[in-house]
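LAB NOTEBOOK - FOLDING QUEUE
OPERATOR: T.R.
BATCH SIZE: 2
PURPOSE: Compare the predicted structure-token outputs for two unrelated chains run back to back under identical settings.
PRIORITY: normal
REVIEWER: second-year student, initials M.K.

ITEM 1
FIELD SEQUENCE / FIELD STRUCTURE:
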Amino acid sequence: MVRRKSQAALEYLITYGWAILLIVIVGGALFSLGIFNPTNWLSNKRATGFSSFHVDDWAFYPGQGLGTLTMVVGNKFGSNMRIYNITVVGTFATEGQTLNDTAGAAAYIDVSPDERVKLYVIGFNNVDPGIGTAYKMDVHIDFAALETGLNHTDYGALTGKTEG
């Protein structure tokens, strides 16, 4: 009788042992493929920090001595506004070094609530990072609330890779 109980216990442990071994092997394979790495699930492009604008899309195009940041932004301020200045500080990680440059654009663009406009910031002339280079753009958008006449600045950051 004792022999039958020990045989049943041994079969029980072996069955569960194979199941646990299989789970460990599958988990290891998924880990090596990067399934559990959250950066693989996130987009390379991120817009953070903006409170008065929503940034729908953007791209940075490097040029020969003249790079261009193009942004499509919308007004979520809640009232009519006039964008009058944009300042962008770009940091580019290229070939093991970090390059910085500043560009600005004087713009007088009226934007009503929930309207989208395309903004161009041209003038990154101290860097030529090449296509596919990672960047972070610190963006300052100066605007005036047309109904109150008060000036405001909205800050945010854009990250991504240069496009061609």
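ITEM 2
FIELD SEQUENCE / FIELD STRUCTURE:
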Amino acid sequence: MKYYLYNPLANNGISVEIPGVEPMDASKVDYPSFFAGLKPDDEVVLIGGDGTVNYMINRVDPATIKNNVYLFGNGSGNDFLNDINEPTGKEVLLNPYLVNLPTARVGGKEYRFIDNMSFGIDGYCCEEADRIKAKNPNKKINYAGIAVKGLLFHFKPCHAWIEVDGKQYEFDNVWLAPTMKGRYVGGGMKIAPAQDRNGDLLTVVVYMCKSRLKTLKNFPSIFEGKHIYLKDMVKIMTGRKVHVKFDRPCAAQIDGETVLDVTEYWVEL
């Protein structure tokens, strides 16, 4: 039997209908009990995006999942599917990608993630989007517009201390500092174009600049991965253990899910 679990918050609340299917609300599923009760040939389809996958992997240990699990893409960002070069609207087998997942420690809690752990302007965008949704749940979120306003006016860059596999670095005027399992962040930004999610290293990217206008002018280059040529603005490091610390609290995001008032995070692969 094939079970369909949908995320009612995915894709700005726009649902997808699959003929002949009555899906279950993924947010109401007790994942450990659900998977323990499946027969060996049962299959599961998640309908949603990065946040839907993140929700599952943080409620059941992926190592205990013996059944085939698929993702039917219906997210607003779909960074995971972009990274593995798969389209939305079809069932994609997840199991090969649920092994060797990184763990992040932030705010006294530990999380697994499938795409990235980050804070900076992307966390700010998630925080602002949450505020808009709280006031108007049916409003479509314009992440690009939020980012532009943040870059021009509202988000203040941070001083950052970063440690990667024991090597310590310090940066000023940091706008973005993600640790990447995949290549994409923020719904299509190719922030780590050389990252291999099947490899044994993570990529840490620092996007920094004192000038707001220069930051905004070069920001679109991230979508094509061309920002890596901006040597005075971008620093790229790889490793298995990462610690990122900012000089003030700001919002973080894990696979697009917001964590507020973060000053530091740790990641280990």
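REVIEWER COMMENT (ITEM 2): The chain has six helices and 15 strands.
FOLLOW-UP: none requested
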